Amino acid sequence: MIDSLFPNVDWDSMWEATLETLYMTALSTLFTFIIGLALGILLFLTAPKQLWANKVVNWLTGAFVNIFRSIPFIILIILLIPFTLFLMGSIRGPNAALPALIIGSAPFYARMVLIALKEIDKGVIEAARSMGATTGTIIWKVLLPESKPALISGITVTAIALVGYTAMAGIIGAGGLGTLAFLDGFQRSREDVTLMATILILIIVFVIQYIGDLVTTKADKR
Amino acid sequence: MIELKKVTKKFDTGKAVLTAVDQVDLSIADGEIFGIIGYSGAGKSTLIRLLNGLEKPTSGTVEINGKVITSIKGGELRKARQKVSMIFQHFNLLWSRTVKENIEFPLEIAGVSKAQRGKRVQELIELVGLSGRENAYPSELSGGQKQRVGIARALANDPEVLLCDEATSALDPETTDAILDLLVDINKRLGLTIVLITHEMHVIRKICHRVAVMEGGRVVELGDVLNVFQSPKEEITKRFVAQVTDSGDSQETIKNLRELYPTGELVKLVFVGEQTEQPILTKLIRSHSVEVNIVQGNISHTQRGAYGTLILQLKGSPGEMEEALAFLHSEDVQTEVMHND
């Protein structure tokens, strides 16, 4: 029955492509989370009147974030080819997609982190200072826990965007469901392959969204 | 002992320089409950933040128990802050932590071991009357309970000074009284110096020993709460005092009373401190043949004794009246015959 609906689908390569997509999404989400968090915290703390208020650092970080957030992803991939080649030694395969995926989405997540941190009640930070907390303690014990729900829902949105980005990276041969849909489906006019790849991507997105919502709700004690 | 010397704080807003605190000299004794009252914008929020170094003065020095807060920084300042703790109008609890974990926070900062933290938290929860709510989140507590957590958190590292930033302004009158009682209790039990800022004279009246009145960044009046209530000097102080005692001083009130009680004489008595506990009226009625009718009265209790006024209608022959007034004078009660002019 399924074989008659999808006559051209090679299930082994479909499964392999799904794993590649999951691999790229998981790793790039992890690095995006770490780098985006660091950039977001830096943006927050160097803003005027904050603990590390510093115009130059704030401006530089802001400029970096804005530039990389504004370049369309498909162009970013092409611009980063020399960098990727230098870093990974190849521009083909799932690993080669990672630098572009991370550089493309970390600034996006950094902005979300900044918004989340700005939502924190200033009084709570003042209270921590009045108890003699160091900036490190304020970051780990006030800023991060108090913005946890927003940080989690932000990384959920970013991870979903990254699933889309991995498909685009497929155009330059990153592998995964994007490559499969483009090369096997579109270029060979096998619509059933494209459809199956789309269904699998949708399932991945829904699962990420479901888990993200669940964790966000659980983390929110307000 | 807290000592402020010529403390000035200016804010540069870009367009203009705002002087929030202007040449303030203050000296607050150990174990004292010291109130600072003023309307919003008077500079009291800035002043209290100068005491724990959250704000740095433009000039002048702040000294607490021999430590010059204004000249230390970094680790030394953070260490000093553990002994000068603060509670806030909006409580400023971490919503992501339970009651227990919120109270534990300053202990974590001070590097207290986990086992000792648990023990100390339990003591504090009992002290502020929150037993049974240890594992609740702030969102599950009432305003009064949240402030109790704030107080427990502030007491965690055995501070020498407790700063209260409008600590009861977000609470209803009944809860305010309960929190104020708790502060007095802590002050007596732990010998803690309390400095509080407020715009409510009720708070000053109920718990403070001394009060400073602030206006435009300056301390315009300073003294024992009882004395300030009895004889406020500045116009602003009179307005604050009138918040809690309508002493019947205004011409309007006198005129109204005169119309209501046209016969005899209206006499205003002012009681201060111990006199309020003497049965002066009983003595007056027993030993004199004047007719006494109570027209209006109120008594305010402060930490340094009570303060009250009583307006009486006295009727009798001129001779009897004179004797009655002489008796009141001899009992050291401030007496004033109220004329309608």
Automatic annotation (TrEMBL), chain A:
Its main location: membrane. Keywords: Cell membrane, Membrane, Transmembrane, Transmembrane helix, Transport. CDD domains: TM_PBP2 (cd06261). The keyword Nucleotide-binding does not apply. It holds the Pfam family BPD_transp_1. Residues 18-212 form the ABC transmembrane type-1 domain. It is a multi-pass membrane protein. The chain crosses the membrane at residues 22-46, 67-91, 97-117, 150-183, 195-212. The keyword Phosphoprotein does not apply. It is found in: Cell membrane. Belongs to the binding-protein-dependent transport system permease family. This is ABC transporter permease. The lineage of its organism: Bacteria, Bacillati, Bacillota, Bacilli, Bacillales.
Automatic annotation (TrEMBL), chain B:
Residues 2-241 form the ABC transporter domain. One of its GO terms (molecular function) is ATP binding. SUPFAM superfamilies: ACT-like (SSF55021), P-loop containing nucleoside triphosphate hydrolases (SSF52540). Coiled coil: none annotated. InterPro entries: AAA+_ATPase, ABC_transporter-like_ATP-bd, ABC_transporter-like_CS, ACT-like_dom_sf, MetN_ABC, MetN_ABC_transporter-like, NIL_domain, P-loop_NTPase. It holds the Pfam family NIL. Keywords: Amino-acid transport, ATP-binding, Cell membrane, Membrane, Nucleotide-binding, Translocase, Transport. It comes from the Bacteria. This is Methionine ABC transporter ATP-binding protein.
